[in-house]
Write a structure and sequence with these properties.
Blueprint: H1 2-18, E1 21-23, E2 36-38, E3 49-50, H2 52-56, E4 66-69, E5 74-78, E6 83-85, E7 91-93, E8 100-101, E9 110-114, E10 122-126, E11 132-135, E12 142-145, E13 150-157, E14 167-174, E15 186-187, E16 192-195, E17 204-208, E18 217-218, E19 224-227, E20 235-244, E21 247-248, E22 252-257, E23 269-273, E24 283-287, E25 289-290, E26 299-302, H3 320-323, E27 326-327, E28 334-337, E29 342-343, H4 364-369, H5 378-387, H6 394-398, E30 423-431, E31 435-441, E32 446-452, E33 457-458, E34 462-464
Parallel strand pairs: 1-2, 3-4, 8-14
Antiparallel strand pairs: 4-5, 5-6, 7-13, 9-10, 11-12, 13-14, 15-16, 16-19, 17-18, 17-20, 20-21, 20-22, 23-24, 25-26, 26-34, 27-28, 27-33, 28-29, 30-31, 31-32
Length: 465
Amino acid sequence: MKKLTALVCCIACSLVMYAQVGINSDGTQPDPSAMLEIKSTSKGILPPRVTTAQRDAIVSPATGLVIFNTNCSDLQFFNGAVWVPIGNIMWSVAGAVSGNMTPCANSSGETYTTLPNGPGLFYHWQVPTGSTITSGQGTAAITVAFGTISGSIAVSEFGICGKGLGQSININLIMAPATPVAGVHVSSATQITWKWGSSSGATGYKFNTINNFATAMDLGTATSTTETGLTCLTSYMRYVWAYNACGNSTPAILTQTTSACSSSCGSSLTINHVAGMVAPVTKTVTYGTVSNIPGETSKCWITRNLGASQQATAVDDATESSAGWYWQFNRKQGFRHDGTTRTPATTWINSNAEASDWIPANDPCTLELGSGWRIPVYSEWYNVDNIGNWTNWNGPWDSGLKMHAAGYLPAGDGSLSSRGSYGFYWSSTQIPNTYGWYLQFSAGHSNMIDGNKANGFTARCVRDY
């Protein structure tokens, strides 16, 4: 024990005197420029082996700290900000292609890819967001600005992981795409078709009414979208992003003002319906408008059902083009039925017991025609039916509203029923909790009835005049 203590003291004194350490088997002194020199012809240095999670759990890593990342199979050091792989590839322009890399950066700015011509070999480099990649040696170097390049560049690899000089690889540079450029938007009094140019390298686009990519609507590859239900003579600002597998661009800011309001009832209203959360299909419809309807003379009404391609030709017109679309109570999604198929063919909601009138946020008249338009309340239908002395379907058909028997979609299964024989027109007023009021008429009657909210009825829109 005394001998061991003496040995430790001697080593400590030696370290203090020379301030250098040499570890070897031949007794030589360390190089004067090195604090520590290790010599061996048969063994190597084994640094701490940790996973990425364990590495990231190191508290306040010192700049220059080195570890071996077992997830990435490489040596890494901490550069004071992020962990960086040691031994980055150097590239220069070359000819033949023999593999592919995809340098997408993770949150730490690192990338990991295996080449097909090097099974099991990892190639690593760092691509911090917003930086440039300088590739090559000497005058052959190429520089790629992050976020602007998508394509292939043939390069030569320089002796890494056993590969010889001059062996070619192909690097597929898939970077976050550039910001889209705003196009020429098309607007009317109640809607705007937003347009933008395509971005190189983008695989899709997202659109939002606020500057938040996470909650934005994914439009796929479309470079336009139509927004309805807007207010006339109002300026709007919207945001669109390009994205791909590597990330997303900064947002393009789109601005547009809707056109002037229609000052009088009686003029036509042209709407570009776009398939989505309200309209079941895309089409353009021109609606006539009318006022001075007995019972509600101060209101403006459309003269065909919402979504109808044409004005009905008779009270018993059983065509889809005259019927328009169908809605369940307090739901914004409309349904088209061609007599065989319902669109969209989503799971039918056959029960609705919510205690609520039809709220404005779900009103398809507001969402499709614009601010001010809405589904009539109970009293409005009651007044036109009562004061107009509607006793059968001739009353609504002979009125300025030209209402006909458009049928309905039953609550049980959403199939088509009674088209050409009955008319069912929703009000926005409920009779708690599972029923809503609607106007119903046929060849033998016309009156207000309460029915299951899960039924799909037609919509005739109205606004205050």
